[in-house]
Amino acid sequence: MRYRVLAVLLLLTAAVVATPGTACACSCAPLEPRRQVEESAAVFTGTVVAARRLKGAPSGPTPPIVYTFRADQVYKGRADAEFQVVTNADEAACGYRFTTGSRYLVFASAGESGLFAIDPGVPLHTSLCAGNRMVRPGVAPLRADDGAQSGAPLTAGLLTALGTATPPAPPAPSAAPPAPSTSGDGPGPSWIYGGVALAALGLAAAGWRLLRRGRAA
Q1: What does the angle CA 56 – CA 58 – CA 63 come to, to the nearest 5 degrees?
Q2: What's the predicted TM-score (pTM) here?
Q3: Could you give the domains of the chain?
Q4: Which of 45, 77, 146, 214 sits 20 to 30 Å CA-CA off 196?
């Protein structure tokens, strides 16, 4: 009987270890808003405009996802108009699930994270523990009631930690077309053609006068 009980316990232990996501379940320690901002390289609000899953080995873990955000307010980091942030696809691996078309307050870190099995090739990353949350659609700096989209208003402590927002820089203007060249075999400036035409008219008038004088003599 004792051996049967031991065998059952071993089988149960093996099943728990083999269950996907159980052995690597994400556990987050609560952070104060000030720490969330301090430990982030970029903090911004933006709308998800694209998502792409990275390629990984067929037999390996689920590859991470790179989300592209159109930023509307930046609270920390460069005030870029667009951000790319990578996160794991599974919540069990501390991934955060963003929804395309929704607006979020995003806390993104830079550098090595130890969360990804493959190199994502994106400098910014985030996780389930970073403090991300969905907020009300819009482009203005956050207010307390903007957090109602995710179920609870934004706290005064969070708004104070975020500080003053900076609108993102507008996209760089396209390069102006090059000025027409005044050298080489191409056509010259229009004033040259006008001068030549006037000179030709002057010569024609002088020749006509000489021709009339010759006939009169």
Answers
A1: 35
A2: 0.68
A3: 24-52+63-162 (2.40.50.120)
A4: 214
Q: 13 or 76, which is more confident? A: 76
Tally of CB atoms within 10 A around 128: 19
How far is residue 146's CA from residue 135's CA, in Å, rounded to a whole number? 5
Spatial separation of the C-alpha atoms in residues 101 and 50, rounded to whole Å: 8
User: Taking 70 as the threshold, does the pLDDT of residue 179 lie above it?
Assistant: no
Residue 25 · residue 91 · CB < 8 Å = no
Amino acid occupying residue 7 = A
Asked whether the beta carbons of 193 and 199 are under 8 A apart, the reply is: no
Largest CA distance in the chain: 148
pLDDT digits (tens, 9 = 90+) for 90-124: 999 999 999 999 999 999 999 887 788 777 889 99
Residue 37 — φ and ψ, nearest 5°? -70, -45
